[in-house]
Write a structure and sequence with these properties.
Oligomer: single chain
Strand content: 15-25%
Number of helices: 9
Order of helices and strands: HEHEEEHEHEHHHEEEEHHEEEEEEE
Shape: elongated
CATH superfamily of the largest domain: Creatinase/methionine aminopeptidase superfamily
CATH architecture of the largest domain: Alpha-Beta Complex
Radius of gyration: 24 Å
CATH topology of the largest domain: Creatine Amidinohydrolase
Number of strands: 17
CATH class of the largest domain: Alpha Beta
């Protein structure tokens, strides 16, 4: 559960009068996690109000008040919708600027969790609803030292699985055995299980034109065979099967043969150059300057644009990483959204530019962790050239 005194300090710094956490049947998982609610039967609307000064308060339906006893917080109840609005009015009395999980124009969908009608209901009481996006990042996206340690262990295991997979693929091709993308993916998942890693979805294993699809999913019934002289892209993500563990997420590309085609080599140079430019920008400006997520994307995107491949870079440069692979902190994004949240200490994000052509795609992904006064790129080794798989 969040520290109320620390929340109130952040509210005062942001000039907010308070933070109104709201949920209905799981629409706002951010609220439930921040408040520290355990699993239980909560089927009606509830609010958790944290003023910038004074004690917090819960407002819930009368039949569900016992679902909040574990929080040791004052509870107000309502029976009818009229009572709910009146109680909400009383609870917010004297306060004007209210932070909620709302994002203007849904510019940050990861934190846009409160429905428009609820925002309208609060605003009808004469309140100004503002986005809690920075508060969410501060209280939900920062890692503890234990979480960083778990990330580094997950990174080590993922890289081991990656190189074991390259060896497995090379052995199969040399021996003339039929190996599909799906079979290689399933072999990786077995290594996940043996290593104590879990994942929300299987890794991407894609060859040739399939690697040009950033979210390609091989299946048992639709999967290409991996052969000599193929380009192979592997994107794998996972975390330790432990409470509060956080993800690691990396993408590598390999070539099954000795002589990498010139076009692939050239595209790799552009992609890896954009990746390195993004990392260099963060290192040059953090923590002395306040960097925003969109600025990192702009650096990597400009690098690719200037080399003539801008139309083929079709997604943001990176995403926040947390207990979910795509977390609630700042994304490196000036394309899909303009993420103006600042990059803050103890958060992690990916930098993963890609170029996706009809015949093949290349992406290179690293993870960046911000310490208080340092920038750490995780995942050892960092890919510096297309990996060659010996096919004999």
């Amino acid at each position: 559960m969040i520290d109320i005194r620390e929340v109130q300090e952040q509210l005062r710094q942001a000039s907010f009068d308070g933070w109104l956490l709201y949920d209905f049947q799981g629409l706002n998982p951010i609220a439930k996690k921040l408040v520290g609610l355990q699993a239980g039967m909560l089927t009606r609307r509830w609010y958790y109000w944290i003023p910038k000064q004074g004690e917090p308060c819960i407002l819930c339906h009368r039949i569900e008040q016992f679902g909040f006893t574990s929080l040791d917080t004052r509870v107000r109840t309502f029976k009818s919708w009229q009572e709910m609005i009146e109680s909400l009015k009383q609870m917010l009395e004297g306060h004007e600027t209210i932070a909620m999980e709302y994002s203007p124009l849904c510019s940050i969908p990861y934190v846009s969790r409160v429905d428009a009608g609820t925002v309208e209901a609060v605003e009808s009481l004469g309140k100004k609803v503002t986005s809690s996006a920075d508060l969410v990042q501060y209280f939900q996206s920062r890692w503890s030292q234990q979480q960083l340690d778990m990330h580094l262990e997950a990174s080590r295991l993922l890289m081991s699985i990656l190189f074991e997979t390259f060896q497995f693929v090379g052995d199969a091709v040399r021996q003339g055995a039929r190996l599909t993308e799906y079979a290689a993916q399933q072999a990786m998942l077995e290594k996940f299980r043996r290593s104590g890693l879990i994942t929300f979805s299987p890794p991407i294993v894609a060859v040739n034109q399939n690697s040009g699809n950033p979210h390609y999913e091989p299946s048992e019934t639709s999967s290409a065979e991996i052969r000599r002289d193929d380009l192979l892209l592997v994107d794998l993500w996972g975390k330790l099967d432990k409470p509060e563990s956080v993800y690691a997420d990396y993408t590598w590309v390999a070539y099954l043969g000795n002589t990498i085609p010139e076009k692939m080599a050239n595209v790799w140079q552009v992609v890896s150059g954009a990746r390195d430019a993004g990392v260099a920008f963060v290192k040059a400006n953090y923590p002395s300057n306040k960097i925003q997520g969109w600025q990192v994307d702009n650096v990597a995107r400009s690098y690719i644009d200037e080399r003539g491949f801008g139309d083929f870079f079709i997604h943001r440069t990176g995403h926040n990483i947390g207990e979910d692979d795509h977390g609630t902190g700042a994304n490196m994004d000036s394309l899909e959204t303009k993420d103006e949240r600042h990059l803050i200490a103890n958060t992690c994000f990916s930098i993963e530019p890609g170029i996706y052509l009809p015949e093949f795609g290349i992406r290179s992904e690293v993870n960046v962790y911000l310490e208080k006064n340092a920038v750490v790129v995780t995942g050892d080794p960092i890919q510096i050239e297309i990996h060659r798989i010996d096919c004999g």
